[in-house]
């Protein structure tokens, strides 16, 4: 699976792809001491729409209208953004952000031998998953915040692939399939 990386664990500013221009843009400085614990970006040609929303318990509004987020754990530091990395999907975190499904797929860098035998999120050291959960619980906090985020228990590789398939189908429905 390819992942487009927008943030590294060294970024104190949150960047996102600007949907109109296709360029990376400053979304906001990190408002708390929370920093991304892994590479963070999205899976190309995915969209969190109706199908993704139907997979999320408690989703009132469907998906968040963005590409599907992915966190890629890497043993070696990667400090560049705007790169594509090959990732092996292990599972994910179900996140509701103001009633919208905003899943966080968890993966490892596919070419690293350290993670070779890891096939499911339950095989990662729990501290890694705890850090990812903590980051997404706190990354939008500030004194004027009215956003509510809820993060459920991790799900495994099979459900992650189901969420990815739904996001690909949402993308194809909204933006057309290959060659269109």
Number of helices: 3
Distance, first to last CA = 22 Å
Which structural class do the helices and strands define? alpha+beta
Which stretches of 5+ consecutive residues score pLDDT under 50? none
Shape-level CATH architecture: Alpha-Beta Complex
Question: What is the H/E string?
Answer: EEEEHEEEEEHEEH
Mean pLDDT equals 91
**CATH homologous superfamily (4th level) name:** Inorganic pyrophosphatase
Gross morphology is globular
Under CATH, the topology can be stated as: Inorganic Pyrophosphatase
Helix content bin: 10-25%
Tell me about the biggest sheet?
Answer: 5 strands, mixed, barrel
Count the domains: 1
Beta content: 25-35%
Question: How would you explain this protein's 3D organization?
Answer:
By secondary structure, the protein is of the alpha+beta class. A hairpin with a 2-residue loop joins β7 and β8. The protein contains 3 helices and 11 strands; from the N terminus they run ββββαβββββαββα. The mean pLDDT is 91. The chain has one domain: Inorganic Pyrophosphatase (Alpha-Beta Complex), CATH 3.90.80.10. The strands form 3 sheets. Strands 1-4-5-9-6 form a 5-stranded mixed β-barrel. It has a 3-stranded antiparallel beta sheet with strand order 8-7-10.
Notable characteristics:
five-stranded mixed barrel, three-stranded antiparallel sheet, alpha+beta, 180 residues, Inorganic Pyrophosphatase
